[in-house]
Specification:
Layout lengths: L9 H18 L4 H30 L8 H23 L2 H27 L5 H5 L18 E2 L4 H5 L5 H4 L5 E6 L13 E5 L8 E2 L3 E5 L8 H4 L3 H11 L6 E4 L14 E2 L2 E2 H16 L9 E6 L1 H12 L6 E5 L10 H9 L3 H5 L3 H7 L6 E7 L3 H16 L3 E7 L5 H10 L1 H7 L5
Parallel strand pairs: 1-4, 5-6, 5-9, 9-10, 10-11, 11-12
Antiparallel strand pairs: 2-3, 3-6, 7-8
Helix pairs in contact: 1-4, 2-3, 3-4, 14-15
Length: 434
């Protein structure tokens, strides 16, 4: 059951049909008072509550930088309407059975709407992802093998394939280390625990000296999102199976500090997130894992605000991350608009923001050694305009860039596919394959 899909197949259809049936049960009542008062009241309450929540979330609270999609607002309004209708529907029902069915119908509507929201973002592809169950390949960090002799080469794959042990690791799965604390030794940043993917070849002896990919979630979100909606393990295992067990060591780091925190990937009043990603995380990885320490073997990537952060790292710290992958990132780090961001992060000092803002940096600096990839869904109208702008700026700043537009919106179906589709580009750039 944990592998049952929540995005397609029979289960989503069954839940959707149950939700539609529940909705029809809630509204199809012949009593005049119900039709004239209960239904209109429920609709008005749903519209008003949804409007108030939207204003609070997008203008006052601003827990995340992107606007709430209209489809999600519609699902929320339908849910409020269903909840309001449950009580009068119970009153209008004859007998215990009708009242029980009315309550169940309300639950069915909410489940169907929640499912549709999940389909919209592709956040939890399966029941196991929804429950965030530990994968079968998860191990504690204490079980990660220590240093051993290494195999080096650029590109690495042709050299590695000449080693006898290479043939024995190609079909084995990688391993995941969850809840891995990476302290903010220099930054003091209160990051949440990271997640770690180690490819099969990391467990070989001798061990190939592997490149490193730092992955970032969006906001709201957490590092575990890459292992659920992002399908990270499946992508890396598939790549490793085709390349004698080779794949990057992947560290999914936390750039936010909390699901609803947003320090906009800067060193500012909101926290030293930039130093955490540019200094603390690389220092920890090089100290605790046997990986290639060369900067050209390191890349950073992220989705949404995490994609913006990847570009921030690439423009502010090109010596650390000369390769980056920006998926559906914003035009600039933001808490809603530039004024709000500058006020919260720098106390209104616009010059301080300009000194670290990628677009402003790329106007005055060149990055001939940097290589970047931008991927956006064509149905993500805001993201598409932003990505076209920053990709153009990156090209003008002498970066070697690719700007890819794919089918889809601002969701995990775009991002998980993008990482899978671009693994050859990434591995070539990191010196893993020819």
């Amino acid at each position: 059951m944990t592998e049952w899909s929540l995005l397609d197949g029979p289960l989503p259809w069954l839940i959707t049909v149950a939700g539609v049936g529940g909705g029809l049960w809630l509204v199809c009542v012949r009593r005049r008072w119900f039709v004239r008062r209960a239904v209109p009241t429920a609709i008005v309450v749903a519209v008003v509550v949804t409007g108030i929540v939207r204003v609070v979330v997008e203008r006052w609270w601003r827990p995340f930088p992107d606007s709430v999609p209209m489809a999600i607002c519609a699902y929320f309004a339908c849910g409020v309407c269903a909840v309001v209708l449950v009580v009068p529907r119970i009153v209008a029902s004859a007998g215990v059975a009708g009242r029980v069915i009315s309550g169940v119908a309300g639950v069915g509507v909410l489940l169907a709407l929640t499912l549709q929201a999940n389909v919209f973002f592709a956040q939890y592809p399966t029941i196991g992802d929804l429950l965030e169950l530990a994968p079968a390949n998860e191990i504690p960090f204490a079980d990660v093998p220590g240093p051993t002799t290494v195999v080096t080469g650029v590109p690495l794959e042709p050299v590695w394939r000449t080693v006898p042990t290479a043939a024995t690791v190609g079909a084995t799965p990688g391993r995941v280390v969850a809840d891995l604390p990476i302290p903010g030794a220099r930054s003091g940043f209160p990051a949440r625990s990271a997640q770690l993917y180690l490819p099969p070849a990391y467990f070989a002896s001798p061990r190939p000296l592997l490149p490193v990919l730092i992955l970032l979630p969006g906001q709201p979100g957490s590092p575990s999102d890459w292992f659920h909606g992002g399908r990270l393990t499946a992508t890396m295992d598939a790549f490793a199976a085709a390349h004698a067990g080779l794949a990057p060591v992947v560290v999914v780091a936390d750039e936010n500090g909390g699901s609803f925190d947003n320090p906009v990937c800067l060193d500012s009043r909101l926290g030293n997130a930039a130093t955490y990603l540019a200094v603390d995380v690389p220092d920890w990885v090089r100290t605790h894992l046997q990986v290639d320490p060369t900067p050209t073997s390191w890349a950073i990537a992220g989705i949404s605000s995490g994609g913006t952060c990847a570009l921030q790292m690439a423009t502010n710290y090109p010596q650390v991350y000369p390769t980056f992958f920006d998926m559906s990132g914003d035009l600039e780090p933001t808490l809603g608009d530039r004024s709000q961001t500058v006020d919260a992060a720098f106390g209104g000092d616009d010059a301080a923001f300009t000194r670290v803002n990628p677009v402003d940096l790329m106007r005055v600096r060149s990055y001939p050694e940097s290589n970047g990839l931008f991927v956006t869904g064509v149905e993500d109208s805001d993201g598409l305009a932003a990505q076209r702008s920053v990709c153009g700026a990156a090209t003008e700043a002498e970066m070697r860039t690719r700007c890819v537009e794919v089918s889809g919106g601002h969701d995990w179906s775009v991002w998980s596919s993008a990482l899978s589709d671009e693994m050859d580009w990434l591995a070539t750039r990191l010196g893993l394959i020819p």
